[in-house]
# Entry
Amino acid sequence: MAELLADPEYRVTSSPAARKQLVDRFLISRADEFSGPSYVRDELYARVQQLRKSSTAGVGVAGSEIPFRKEREG
# Structure
């Protein structure tokens, strides 16, 4: 997550839709060009957003643990 948050393109992109596309490309590049389910992308996006908010609020990376949903929520 921190790697994605540190990405210069991600940092300057303000549109949520564009950020989700960046997250999707990030995942594909690390999964042998395999595009996983959209809920995985959405989960990573949510975690990175939470990390971004907590880091701007002065809370370090260690304080930003977000439990991973084990199954897709409707």
Q: What stands out?
A: DSSP finds four helices and no strands in the chain. Confidence is low (pLDDT under 50) at residues 59-72. The two ends are 24 Å apart (CA to CA).
